[in-house]
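Researcher: Going back to the complex we discussed earlier. I've cleaned up the inputs and rechecked each line, so this should be the final set. Can you rerun the prediction on the complete assembly and write out the structure?
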Amino acid sequence: MNVQEGKDKFIQSWGALGSNWGVSRTMAQIHALLLIAPHALSAEDIMEDLKISRGNANMNIRALMDWGLVYKELKTGERKEFFVAEKDMWDVVKKIIAQRKKKELEPMLKVLEELSAVEGNDPESQNFVQVVRDIKLFSNKANATLDKLVQSDSNWFVKVFMNMI
Amino acid sequence: MNVQEGKDKFIQSWGALGSNWGVSRTMAQIHALLLIAPHALSAEDIMEDLKISRGNANMNIRALMDWGLVYKELKTGERKEFFVAEKDMWDVVKKIIAQRKKKELEPMLKVLEELSAVEGNDPESQNFVQVVRDIKLFSNKANATLDKLVQSDSNWFVKVFMNMI
DNA sequence: CAGAAGTTTCAGAATTAATTGAAAATAAGA
DNA sequence: TCTTATTTTCAATTAATTCTGAAACTTCTG
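Model: Rerun complete. Updated structure for the full complex:
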């Protein structure tokens, strides 16, 4: 396999993977392209390589920057903006976890809190409140664990990995 | 808040959460409905409660069973099939991880393996192969860690949680 | 300040995913 | 075996998401 075929395949696969991770297909493809680029690319470069429109490129690059997966790089003497990807995979995973925790887990915790306020002495209400309480307990633990995980450095992952093996 | 409002809100929120987890909105809603149901429900019950079509109910119940998140329950003397949800949250999370690992991580590992075969002595190829190798290393570790995690019992989670705090 | 280079926005178009509903298949009972 | 209850399938429809492209906006430079 030559390098161009390899790159294409990587971009395509990374895009497919990302689309299941709250990162849209194009977003993941841009990230993939930047991951394997030996140097920063401009919006124009990305548009050409992935054959996407200017608007699409712009919106997805911005989203990637919001997630902390891509950084802007300014070159002196150049007016254009260039972009590089976060290449440390542990960091990438942490940032995705942080985003999803904020956007998904935390709102759910809030809802579970509200649902604890359901009243009633009938068995139906009792059962409901019990289920909600169990889930809330679990979710709070998960939330705390993910917090630690997001704060931890790469070595943490290596350590846990070692312990498990 | 009364119990009916509470149930509605729970189903709605759980559905929204699920739709970001490889579980479609309706699939997650059915799971939510079964989680808070004090006893097994028939397909008919689910259709009525969620106001969805027979086909939709059937397909999503089956998907939930494939994932191991819902079980069939046969009542003697009843011809209909009834369904109950897995209620242990740790088990639910493990099953979701197991599915996604199989459907996403493992295919990606296969692709990364193939991409290692890219040849060339030019800097571009060298860089590409290096990036792919880094990602592969990380992914293999993640894969092994998730394997252990999926095999582990609830206590494992509690232990890790305690260690982190 | 005027013009050029670059970036952002967003309504409509295109694409992709989920849902319906009716027909086909299956299974149980008489 | 035939009838009836129940489940499954899938083509057509509907809904949700993503992308385009042109116009508006911003920033830099002479």
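Model: Worth noting: Chain A has a mean pLDDT of 92.
Researcher: Good, that matches what I expected from the previous run.
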